[in-house]
Amino acid sequence: EVQLLESGGGLVQPGGSLRLSCAGSGFTFNMHAMSWVRQAPGKGLEWVSTISDSGGTTSYADSVKGRFTISRDNSKNTFYLQMDSLRAEDTAVYYCAKCSRSGYYKGDYFDKWGQGILVTVSS
Amino acid sequence: QSVLTQPPSVSGAPGQRVTISCTGSNSNLGAVYDVHWYQQLPGTAPKLLIYGINNRPSGVPDRFSGSKSGTSASLAITGLQTEDEAGYYCQSYDTSLSGWVFGGGTKLTVL
Predict the structure, then answer these.
(1) Is it the case that residue A102 has pLDDT exceeding 80?
(2) Strand, coil or helix: what is A86?
(3) Which region holds residue B95: left if phi is over 0, alpha if psi is between -120 and 50, else beta?
(4) Is the pLDDT confidence value at B36 over 80?
(5) What is the DSSP string of B49-62?
């Protein structure tokens, strides 16, 4: 059974940093691109970032570009989201999601999701 | 404002059929990339419902179906059940934004 488990969320002050982790199991982790998707309180889903299976290709939403960094450690079946210069509008539940294909495919979809972790940016 | 436009809410009685629309543009639904749909039950993570326009993952009932024409897509749910009450999101890729995009979401109420 595919499982994705996020960790590292919490309360942080504006301008601060936080690193989210997502550990995957039940599938061949190094053969799938992985993504972060967030959902602000009472709002819809927003794609944040994707990293290819090898880690060689990454992409970001304009709203986080230059502030967030996605990375992965295939030896640990884990990928990360380093969030710097956090703003109030980054407050959301962050979901890690498994992309359906190996490699990096723009027509891809998110076939498994973690349970989500809350990040709150507030003073 | 979302790149893909969905109605905020739809409703139907048990047993009825409802459709949820998803309207985009030539840079997303009108481009080469497929549309996918997700179901989010209250208080839970999203779940893949339909992929590649009209394919259902294992375990998704055939009451759910999808379609696409030009820059629009639709999700149809037949034989509505109370457990279908949830949020529904369409998703594709946008070539202008160089990223994945979601619709704003539609809340389905089963009366």
Answers:
(1) no
(2) coil
(3) alpha
(4) yes
(5) EEBTTTB--TT--T
**CA A33, CA A102: separation in Å to the nearest integer?**
6
Q: Does B64 touch chain A (CB under 8 A)?
A: no
Cα angle value A79/B4/A120 (rounded, 5°): 45
Sheet holding A78-83, edge to edge: A3-7, A18-25, A78-83, A68-73
> Given pLDDT bands bounded at 50, 70 and 90, which one contains residue B58?
very high
**3-state SS, residue B83:** helix
Q: How many helices (H) and strands (E) does chain A have?
A: 0, 11
Picking from B89, B93, B98, the nearest residue to A45 by CB comes out as: B89
Partner A, chain B 69-108, Cβ-Cβ below 8 Å: 87, 89, 91, 93, 95, 97-105
Residue B51 contacts A, CB cutoff 8 Å: yes
Reference B89, options A91, A79, A46; nearest CA is A46
pLDDT tens for A43-89 read 999 999 999 999 999 999 999 999 999 999 999 999 999 999 999 99
Mutation for testing the B interface, residue in A45, A50, A65, A115 having most B CBs under 10 Å: A45
Residue whose tokens read 């149809």: B76
Could you read off the pLDDT of A41-52 as tens digits, one per residue? 999 999 999 999
Q: Is the pLDDT of residue A103 over 80?
A: no
* Chain B CA closest to residue A111: B48
